[in-house]
Amino acid sequence: MPKHLTTRNNSYYFRRMYPADVQRIAGQRELKRKLRASKLREAELEAALINQEFERTVQLARGQEGADHGVAIVLATRFLQSKGLISSTGQLTFPALDPRKPEHDTIEKQLAVIGEWEAKYEATYDQLALAVQVENTAAVNPQTAAFDQLIGKASLRSDYSLKDAAEFYVRENRLKHGRTPDAQKKSEAEQRRRLDLFAGWLGGGNVELGYRKPFKSIDRATAQRFKAYLIEEKHWRVATRNKCLTYLNSAFNAAGDEFDIAGWSNPFRRLASDAQIDSQKRLSFTPLEYRDWWQSLLSYRNQNPQAALIGLMLLETGSRIIELTHLQIGDLRLEHAVPHLLVRNNPRRKLKGVIEHPVFPMRTKKQLEAYVSQLADKDEQSPLFPRYATANGNSTLSATLKKRFFATWGEDSGRNLTSYSARHAFKDRGRAAGVDLAVLDYLMGHKTKQSSVVAQGYGTGYSLSVLKEAAEKINTQEDWGYVDQLAY
Q: What is the distance between the alpha carbons of residues 472 and 486, in angstroms, rounded to a whole number?
């Protein structure tokens, strides 16, 4: 992407600072322009044209001779072609002619305008042909080759590789989303990890070889074989597999639109459409498993106090791991009349699809207070759990608790229990306790129409006291789930 081309809110901008001696003459510090282009290729052309305007302004301000306008003409003509003002055959089109305007209200006036445009075009064509650098002029008319390159025909390659597609997708995705640097780094790492996996599979274990694969040669049969590889050899669960295939679908969509290859279709289209069967879903705790896990975490406090405390709080609040691991000291409201913690966005992590909400520690409140009293850094911006509050939003806690699961039940228990099982159990207990589903969704941070109603009533119709009362009902519920799982 050109140095002075930026993006904000899905729009492209050109922004370049004038030199100090030019600022006084130009009467402004910088040249800033919102571009009309909606695609990166068009934006690069438009930005390059504005940059020529910038250079001419600087030269004029310094009393220097103006630059050759040939390059500007090339850029302008390419931009007109990208907007459909010049056809692929070289014919000029004039969609801007409006017969309702006085200057265009007769055939004669319209023909006169077209004639003026054609005269200008013909007068500059020779200069245009000379200004364009033609890569290969052998056995072709130089002017024809120049024009083909000018309108973009000569620049269209047929040998795009998977590497070209991957790099374009990562760059384009970066421009579309205004993420924080840490969030962007994490997002790109996820994109590249899945692209590297596919490239490695294509190359028989050699990632670089796989990336050299011609983009247009990757067909539906190849995509289907890769999906089979994820199922039969990687043994990935449906959700993990679908996430990978969705990334590849997005990457191929973006690159395919950009490369504009005739007859091409996305091989990953609708490939990530499998429904996750019940036996593969992350299970909820039964009442007996819940009690066993609580006791296991209590006995784990001496080995890893932060992991044990977070695990207990997951059971009590139904929170996601990232909601608790990245809490800050300033999120604590333990001295409030209704003690609670506030789950919200902070510089260390951004929560997608999560509404800002309070959670209420019950039996863990005293443990939490004792833990906080021993922290050396109590600044409001400091992490509550520094061992797991990584800057990029990731956390190793899930793997740590998984090891504790194995220590509690063994690796061959036959139950697919994870940290997320605490969240499923919280939902089951809430239903069994008769808690209003809108309030239950709000306590769990679900961004739904129902939970939004609760959030809008926060402090009025749904006070902290009412929300805490619902949380207490959930945490005193001893039986839940299916009939064969009830604790008789």
A: 20
